[in-house]
Amino acid sequence: MKHVTSTSAAATQITHEPDHRRSGAAPRRFARVVAPLVLALLVVVGVALSAAVAYHNRLGVTNVDGISYMGIAREYANGWLPDAINAYWSPMVSWMMAPFIAAGLGMQTAFAVVNCFAVAVVLGIGGWLVWSQNHRIVPAVLFMVTAIPALMSAVSVQTPDLLVVAWVVGYLWALRWADQSLHGSTRARLVSGGVLGAVAAIGYFVKLFLLPVAVGAVILWLLLRVWSARRRREPVRHWWTSPVATIVVFAVVIAPWVGALTMKYGSPTLGSSLSVNIGSKFDDGGRATDWPFLPVPPNSHAFSPNEDFTPSVYKQGPMDNPDPAVVPPTDDAATTEDTAPKVTKDSGIAARAGYYLHERMLALPYYLQKISTFAPFAAPIALLFAAALVIGVVRFRRYAFTCIVAATTLVYFVGYGMITSSSSGGGNARYYWPLFYLTAMIGALMLPAVWRLVRRRGVVRTIVACVAIAVVPVASFTQNWIGSPAPFYPSVNRTEALRVTGPTDVPEIVRLADQIRASGALPEDATVIGSNYRSLSSLAFLTDTRVYGRSGQGYTYHSDAMRKLFIDQGVQYFVQFDPATAPARDYSMAGKLVGTYNATISCSADRSTDPEIPCRIQIVKFAK
What we know:
The protein is mainly α. The protein folds into 2 domains: 385 residues, no CATH class; 115 residues, 3-Layer(aba) Sandwich (D-Maltodextrin-Binding Protein, domain 2). It is built from 22 helices and 5 strands. The protein has a 5-stranded mixed β-sheet with strand order 2-1-3-5-4. The N terminus is likely disordered. InterPro entries: LipidA_mod_glycosyltrf_83.
């Protein structure tokens, strides 16, 4: 019964019973020495493999969000604090990168170092949490072996989502400590509650979405604990010190940052990302009409306007299309009569709420599909655990920490389910990474109980159970490391194995940027705009220039009105992206052609899903 969480006097007594039945010196020595060494070795192996993958992909730029995080980190590293303070992008990952950038490390490499730190936290704290619950090595090894391929797959992505996973695991540790301290002294409750508040504050700094996750997880934990105590007629009034300490410490830790945001933006704010993203769910005409026509970089050091989506900053550029004859391209699939939003931001509360819920139900299949692309076992584990709770096989008193993990999983799942959308196909899979590790942890924590249940039920059931358990790490390995979905799921985001050894991968966009730098066509700090904003954003980052605009606006060099607007806003160069087989262009009306290059990149449209094709990239310097 070593799986029992010691949270009460009775539970403590139950937990210690096996120690009287298993009093050999060898098992104790294994539990205290050998098992931690095995777990430590797995941490080293996991970090080393992840670092190798990160090293081989360190030159790339994975997405436009990462450019903003790295640009802000550069501002911190150079002491440009007024520019670095940002209400939209949470600061923690940029704070962590800044010292490495200041020390001379490249921005992409600095991001990789931070992600490797997150890998160590996930494996170290996660493995220890599973092992310390039952002091059995196999469940902890199962969790860590399952996690390593997914961590390797995620380590090169330049977003704070891997740091989110690390925070979730750390938050579970803090929740467990607070839960165990409820039956302890007042000092223990105050200290554990304070630590929980500090960890919650770190989550707020990592990603604003984690603030409601932290609040929801604490509330659900307290409800479960109070409900369990009421059933046993235990007093709960003395528990108030723990949540109060959590709230006080959380408020104290975040106060300086909230004060800095308030000073910069002129009104009290915790951040703008949630309001911007939730507000877009009621967009009645798409971002083409709801956002400015020509966003401008928020400061002289920013790589792009994406560095701050806060409306008061992002909408300070020209709002009107200077040439109505140029119609921005639209996605026909998203603007049909059946899928177009029927509710505007001016509709009543009831209509907005009904529309919001309806859209979330439409998005749910896409949401589940995205989760299955990297964690096909997540839904089965969650459903089996929920069924075990309903029929009484799992009880909170005996499986307190496992229930806390499940409650946190539920809060996270529902939270993102409330903001995902069908128009984006469920959003980016990286938003849901924590669900992989949370459900894997639930499976690992329940493994001793499952094994006790099946080992007396015959050879066939034992074999079936072993196969079912083995599917979890095998699925993680095949989908996240090898890039082969079969037989678990029909598709994955990547179709090739991770590169752990061999030469460093040099992406085509990096080769293109090196050619542009060498030719001198774009001097540093030059201001640019182009026909493909996404690819141009990566080029601007790699060439240390500044890009104007946003995707999907149909910017062009041959419109007199557009050129005048660009020049008035300080844009110096236009970058035209065409398929390599497209006819040659005449730029004489716009200015001087200063460079022509060829590369296999995304250029046919201006969407994140565009494939890479042979492209011709031409740079035109505007004539004033």
